[in-house]
Amino acid sequence: MPIVSERAADLGTENAFVVLAEVNGLIRQGRDIISFCIGQPDFPTPVNIQDAAVKAIRDGRHGYTPSAGIAELREAVVRDVKRTRGLDVDAADVVVAAGAKPFIGYTVLSTTDYGQGHEVIVPNPGFPIYDSQIRANGAVPVPLHLRESRNFNFDPQELADRITPKTRLLILNSPHNPTGGIIPRPQLEAIAEILRKHEQVWVFADEIYGRLVYDGEFTSIATLPGMLERTIISDGCSKTWAMTGWRLGFAVNRKLAPYFTTWITNTESCASQISQWAGVEALDGPQDDANRMRDSFLARRNLIVGLLNQVPGVTCQSPGGAFYVWPNVTEACRMIGAQDSEEFRRRLLNEAGVAVLADIHFGPRVPDEGQHIRFSYAASNEAIEKGVARMADFIRKNTR
């Protein structure tokens, strides 16, 4: 019998989809489940964007495009980067893919060599695909701990201490999944100052939540002196315009753009042409719907943070962006006799019908930081109120 490679057998995954499958299985059994596990806007894609896609279909735009993307979308990205970040880039610096996620792997492939012990510094907790792509592509992940006491940021000195001659890439994610934390400009300036001493280190700036900032202003590290050339700006349409299923993302970096293009030719050939024309409308068209969605997420953030802080044994910081909260459930675990956040999550799902993710789904627990779970508040106010009430009742009923 043919065998599966160790690489495939060891490949990590995104546990939000694993838990979602578990949730769907319970729903098929007739269980009433309120799910906060998937990071996906619960709004429809704006109608003007839908109409642009339909027009593309009717106009016969059904075939392959250049691997880097259609010129119209790449030029729209140039305009968007100018508007949102104040940066002047060229269309030749822009590459389009089937979502922003592929650029994680393409960046690791383009900046590290397999089996050479090259290191990639990653936020912990962090989006799990960072770690799985680093390992699958033969590099070494080096966790950089995000601490609750620092509003889920890291000490720049801890970054400096982790850089070695083997370091090739630093991944930054702001606003951040899973904590909703934001890296403020003064910290970005401190990071840039450290990186100026290490010319071999690239920066992957995962800015997919950059338009979902509620406290302060969004700042890209690429805007700081000397950082544009070494920063891969990664962004896309999924979160801002509720286009997760359209699979449309882009990256910006002058030196790496030709290599990203070649990787795309080798893998996906190109992003869907229909989605690309929809993306032009998303970037260049009216932003009223996107702004309304952002305002709704802000209201939901305020609602869920206020409710969670009334739950026995739970404390929750107010996140600066994205649509996630990362409540501390250390005391709640102690109260109900749960060994850790994963046992808490499983019991909450099976006994109370509330689906969340545990901290271990986003990397190893940060030492001395306790137990956390993630709620995605891309859910209705009714679902938030009902779900948090169920969690509070679950804790009260099971307190020993």
Describe the structure.
This protein has 400 residues and is an alpha/beta fold. The protein has 2 domains: 6-44 and 289-398, Alpha-Beta Complex (Aspartate Aminotransferase, domain 1), CATH 3.90.1150; 60-284, 3-Layer(aba) Sandwich (Aspartate Aminotransferase, domain 2), CATH 3.40.640. Helix content is 41%, strand content 12%. The protein is built from 14 helices and 12 strands. The longest helix has 21 residues, at 288-308.
Summarize this, please?
With 400 residues, the chain is α/β, with parallel strands linked by helices.
Question: What is this structure's SSE topology?
Answer:
Layout: H1 6-10, H2 15-28, E1 34-35, H3 47-58, H4 71-85, E2 94-97, H5 102-111, E3 119-124, H6 128-136, E4 140-145, H7 156-162, E5 167-173, H8 185-195, E6 202-206, E7 231-236, E8 249-252, H9 257-266, H10 273-284, H11 288-308, E9 324-325, H12 330-336, H13 341-352, E10 354-355, E11 357-358, E12 373-376, H14 381-398
Parallel strand pairs: 1-10, 3-4, 3-5, 5-6, 6-7
Antiparallel strand pairs: 2-8, 7-8, 9-12, 11-12
- Count, helices: 14
Helix content: 40-55%
Q: Numbering strands along the chain, what is their spatial order in the largest sheet?
A: 2-8-7-6-5-3-4
Structural class by SSE content:
alpha/beta
